[in-house]
Amino acid sequence: MDEYLIDKRHMRSAFSRASAGYDAAAVLQREVCTRMLERLEYIKLQPSLILDAGSGTAWGARRLAQRYPAAQVIELDIAIGMLKAARGHSGWWQKLFGGAKQVQLCADMEVLPFASNGLELLWSNLAMQWCNDLPATCVELHRVLKVDGLLMFSTFGPDTLKELRMAFNGVDQHNHLNRFADMHDIGDMLVQAGFADPVMDMEYITLTYNDVRGVLQDLKAIGAHNATAGRGQGLMGKNAWARLVENYERLRSNGKLPATFEVVYGHAWKPQPRTTKDGAAIIRTSFKLK
After folding, report:
1. Where are the chain's structural domains?
2. In 171-194, which positions are buried (b, 16+ CB within 10 angstroms) versus exposed (e)?
3. What is the DSSP letter of 289?
4. Residue 105 CB partners (closer than 8 Å, separation 6+)
5. Which residues pair with 196 in a beta bridge?
6. How far apart, in whole angstroms, are the C-alpha atoms of residue 89 and residue 62?
7. What is the dihedral of CA 85, 90, 93, 97, to 10 degrees?
8. Which tens digit of pLDDT belongs to each residue from 259-268?
9. 199: part of which helix (H) or strand (E)?
10. C or N: which end of the chain has fewer Cβ atoms within 10 Å?
């Protein structure tokens, strides 16, 4: 068993527990979502059916509904607690902006409960990093989109929390952080899945903290616990904690401890299927020689 595989049951429970205080802590998630929304200014698509995959408390879904008031926005999240928290916002938002009735689904974005070729915009803000099989997830995202439909997403790249990763080095034998896919690898996965000419870019966003405990408390507050199969099953001992703090303190700069996030942005369209002159479909396949 891959020690870096995400334990989905543990992840679901962590996000549900964090749902009540999530909005107060999710500063980075809102900032990235806002930057994604700004990118829609350059997209002429006017979708009637939108899926927010990994919708959390629906902060982004509500703004998509505001931008596209005639569209139906579906909120999908793996954690039922997040969806319940989102319902608390729906009443005042609909009174203020109108729009369709809130639709929610509790499901895993790796196995979407939709028929093929139905969605026109598939939106996902900082959720794809929780997928165990990202190439297969890209195929699934492609499947549910209509031709000429748009996938727009953000996720974390491999330099995310690099300071915390370095601080944990040598503390014990357990995994403490998830692995994150490289931007170029994600672009290749999208092409292999059938998307056309994906546009990928990234930026670094650094948050600062007074101490290590503040970093870990923020991660806990948004439900971003270590959910890998190789995680430790108990509390960290005093000696391990002391080593972690000592290691992280070496990175203190201007009186603060940095926590860097590599944010990867991407969008891609589902193109018309390719055919031969006689109308036969061209299907993309790949294999490796052993």
Report:
1. 8-158+179-204+263-269
2. beebbbbbebbebeebbebbeebb
3. -
4. 74, 75, 76, 113
5. 269
6. 9
7. 140
8. 999 999 999 9
9. strand 196-209
10. C
Which residue in 101, 132, 164 sits closest to 4, CA to CA?
132
Q: What does the pLDDT read at residue 55?
A: 97
Distance of alpha carbon 11 from alpha carbon 7, whole angstroms: 6
* 21-53 pLDDT per residue, tens: 999 999 999 999 999 999 999 999 999 999 999
Residues in the chain: 290
Q: Which CATH superfamily is domain 8-158+179-204+263-269 in?
A: Vaccinia Virus protein VP39 (3.40.50.150)
Q: Distance of CA 27 to CAs 3, 24, 32, Å?
A: 30, 7, 9
Q: Is the pTM of this model over 0.85?
A: yes
- Measure Cα distances from 236 to 111, 121, 160, 171 in Å: 34, 43, 22, 10
3-class SS shares of the chain: helix, strand, coil, % to 5: 40, 25, 35
Q: Is the dihedral of CA 10, 15, 21, 27 positive or negative?
A: positive
Residues of the chain scoring pLDDT < 70: 1-3, 90-101, 225-226, 229-235, 275-290
Per-residue confidence (pLDDT) for residue 290, from 0 to 100: 37
* pLDDT of the residue at 23: 92
Query: Can you give the three-state secondary structure of 34-65, one letter per residue?
Result: HHHHHHHHHCCCCCCEEEEECCCCCHHHHHHH
Tokens of 49: 């059916």
Cβ atoms 121, 45 nearer than 8 A: yes
Long-range contacts at 93-101 (CB < 8 A, ≥ 24 apart) = 93/62, 93/65, 97/65, 97/66, 97/69, 98/69, 99/65, 99/66, 99/69, 99/73, 100/65, 100/71, 100/72, 100/73
Rounded to a whole number of angstroms, the distance between the first and last alpha carbons of the chain is: 22
Nearest to 90 by CA among 76, 68, 75: 75
Instruction: Give the residue among 230, 259, 268 at the shortest CA–CA distance from 39.
Output: 268
